Amino acid sequence: MPRTGRSAAGKQKKKRPQPEWPDGTEKAAGEHQKPRWTFLTNHSHVLILLHKNPDIILREVALAVGVTERAVQRIIQELEADGFVERERIGRRNHYRVLVDQPLRHPIERHRSIGDLLNLVASDTPTAPPAKSD
Length: 134
Hints:
Blueprint: H1 42-52, H2 58-65, H3 69-81, E1 85-90, E2 93-98, H4 114-121
Antiparallel strand pairs: 1-2
């Protein structure tokens, strides 16, 4: 018997919303959600977003990077512990400051700073959409 688009319980399947790229534009049908690998790590992606929008919420970072909120929490904790990010609590929100003078970590790139990387990448990087105010 051919399938009719209904589940075993006879309910109509809901069409999934079209996913969006971090800049808010819709992905065309057939576009991959996430490449198999990228040149930059999730840590650098988080740094770029925090630098561009210091008041961004973790949910927006997670959506833009393509990881869970818990993974973003862990990354930010690691970046704070190693002296790359400072977090200040303002009311119910966090404000992040990326310490741009810190050197990159790997010996091959240690002669460059976080600021050098951010200047190279972040100037044209799309950001996550701003948080909706209540």
